[in-house]
C-alpha cells in the first residue's frame, strides 16, 4: 500500500509509538486542534498520491448525488416512480439524499447538538470515557477507530454505541447521559426511515418488500457520532479515509460539509441540505443484489472551517454469524450469481485486515467462470 512506502521513506519516524502516545493522552484530535497547533503532527500526514486527490476537480459542471423526496411513499399511484428513483440512484451512485422522510427537524437538530455536547465536555470528563476495550460492542469513545490497523491517522473523533444484538448492546449506564435521550430518539427515527427504504430497495429488485428485513438487516445496529474538528492543514490529511460500508447506512450531517462520494473516478461533494439525510448501501447489499446495487467508496475531507463538522450515523447490518449470497430470485441462466456465499464474519475479517479495502473482499468471493 502506498501509505506504507511513504512512512518507510522516513525511517526515523516511529509511527506505532506516535499512535500509542496520542491514544494515551485520550485527548482525541479535538484536543490536538484546541491546543493551538498550527501544523498537524506527522502521523496525520497522508502520502502525496492521496493528497493530490484532495484538489477540487477541474470540471465546471458540478455533479451532485441524487436527491429524493420521500413524501410520496404512502401514495400508491406514486410509489412506482419512487422505487425507480431509488433503484436508479443506488445502482449508479450507491448514494442518495432524502428529504420529507418524516423525521422532525427538531429531532435532527437535537441529535447533532447532543453529539456536539458530548464531544465538547471537558477533558477531565471525556477522558474517563475514552476506550478501545469493547472491541465491536458496547459504548466506545475514541479517535480513529482503526488507529492501530492504519498506516496513517485521520482528523476525527467518534462516539460509538451498539444497540443490537442484545449481547453487543451498550449497557444503559455506559451510554453518556449528555446525549442518551437524543441518541435513542435518533435511533428510533432513523430505523423507521430505514424500514421504508429497505421496502423500496426490495421492490426495486423486484423481490418481496420485506425481503431485506427478513435477511436480518435490523439485527446488528450501531450509532456513531463523529466529530471533525477544525484542521489547520486540511490539504495534508483527511477527516475520514476512503472506505465502503458493510450494510445499510443512514447519515445526518450538519452544514459544514466535507463528505465526498466517488463517482466515475471523481470525488463528488455531498452538499449539506438542511433537513436531509444521506443514504448509502454497503458491500453485503452489493453481493445480495448481485451487483444491481453498488457499494461506493466515500471519504470526508479534513475540516477547514472553525465550526466543527458533526455527523450522526446509524449502521444497519446483519449479525456476524449470518451468511449472505446473491438472492436466488435474481438469478437465471442469463444472470448467474456473481458471488459465492459468504459470512459476515469472513467479510469483517477481510475488511479490517486489508485496511478497509472492500474491493479485495468482493474480488475474493467473486465466482470466476
Ligand atoms: C462512516 C462514514 C461519513 C461522515 O462513518 O462510515 O462514512 O460524514 N461517515 O461522517
Ligand atoms: Ni462510511
UniProtKB/TrEMBL annotation:
Any one GO molecular-function label of the UniProt entry: dioxygenase activity
Domain Fe2OG dioxygenase span(s) in chain numbering: 216-318
InterPro entries the record matches: DIOX_N, IPNS-like_FE2OG_OXY, IPNS-like_sf, Oxoglu/Fe-dep_dioxygenase_dom
Names of required cofactors: Fe cation
Iron listed as a keyword: yes
Keyword Disulfide bond assigned: no
Family annotation (PROSITE patterns): FE2OG_OXY (PS51471)
A Pfam family per the record: 2OG-FeII_Oxy
Gene3D superfamilies: B-lactam Antibiotic, Isopenicillin N Synthase, Chain
Residues forming coiled coils: none
Keyword annotations: Iron, Metal-binding, Oxidoreductase
Stored PANTHER family: 1-AMINOCYCLOPROPANE-1-CARBOXYLATE OXIDASE HOMOLOG 4-LIKE, OXIDOREDUCTASE, 2OG-FE II OXYGENASE FAMILY PROTEIN
Family from the record: Belongs to the iron/ascorbate-dependent oxidoreductase family.
Annotated protein name in UniProt: Fe2OG dioxygenase domain-containing protein
Native organism: Castanea mollissima
Amino acid at each position: 500500500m502506498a501509505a506504507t512506502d511513504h512512512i518507510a521513506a522516513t525511517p526515523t519516524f516511529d509511527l506505532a509509538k506516535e499512535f500509542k502516545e496520542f491514544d494515551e493522552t485520550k485527548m482525541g484530535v479535538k484536543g490536538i486542534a484546541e491546543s493551538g497547533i498550527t501544523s498537524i503532527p506527522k502521523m496525520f500526514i497522508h502520502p502525496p498520491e492521496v493528497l493530490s486527490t484532495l484538489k477540487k476537480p477541474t470540471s465546471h459542471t458540478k455533479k451532485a448525488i441524487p436527491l429524493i423526496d420521500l413524501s410520496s411513499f404512502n401514495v400508491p399511484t406514486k410509489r412506482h416512480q419512487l422505487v425507480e428513483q431509488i433503484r436508479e440512484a443506488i445502482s449508479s451512485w450507491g448514494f442518495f439524499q432524502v428529504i420529507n422522510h418524516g423525521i422532525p427537524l427538531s429531532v435532527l437538530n437535537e441529535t447533532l447538538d447532543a453529539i456536539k455536547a458530548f464531544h465538547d465536555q471537558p477533558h477531565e470528563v471525556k477522558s474517563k470515557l475514552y476506550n478501545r476495550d469493547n472491541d465491536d460492542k458496547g459504548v466506545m469513545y475514541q479517535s480513529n477507530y482503526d488507529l492501530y490497523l492504519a498506516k496513517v491517522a485521520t482528523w476525527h473523533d467518534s462516539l460509538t454505541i451498539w444497540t443490537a444484538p442484545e449481547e453487543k448492546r451498550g449497557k444503559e449506564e455506559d451510554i453518556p447521559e449528555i446525549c442518551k435521550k437524543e441518541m435513542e430518539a435518533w435511533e428510533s427515527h432513523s430505523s423507521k426511515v430505514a424500514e421504508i427504504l429497505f421496502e423500496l430497495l426490495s421492490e426495486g429488485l423486484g423481490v418481496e418488500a420485506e425481503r431485506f428485513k427478513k435477511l436480518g438487516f435490523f439485527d446488528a445496529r450501531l450509532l456513531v457520532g463523529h466529530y471533525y474538528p477544525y484542521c489547520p492543514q486540511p490539504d495534508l490529511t483527511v477527516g475520514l479515509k476512503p472506505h465502503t460500508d458493510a450494510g445499510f447506512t443512514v447519515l445526518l450531517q450538519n452544514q459544514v460539509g466535507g463528505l465526498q462520494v466517488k463517482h466515475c473516478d471523481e470525488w463528488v461533494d455531498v452538499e449539506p441540505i438542511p433537513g436531509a439525510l444521506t443514504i448509502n448501501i454497503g458491500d453485503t447489499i452489493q453481493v445480495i443484489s448481485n451487483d444491481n446495487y453498488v457499494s461506493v467508496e466515500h471519504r470526508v475531507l479534513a475540516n477547514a472551517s472553525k465550526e466543527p463538522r458533526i455527523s450522526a450515523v446509524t449502521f444497519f447490518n446483519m449479525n456476524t454469524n449470518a451468511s449472505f449470497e446473491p438472492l436466488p430470485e435474481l438469478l437465471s441462466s442469463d444472470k448467474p450469481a456473481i458471488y459465492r456465499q459468504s459470512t459476515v464474519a469472513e467479510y469483517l475479517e477481510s475488511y479490517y485486515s486489508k485496511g478497509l479495502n472492500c474491493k479485495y473482499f468482493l474480488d475474493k468471493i467473486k465466482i470466476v467462470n
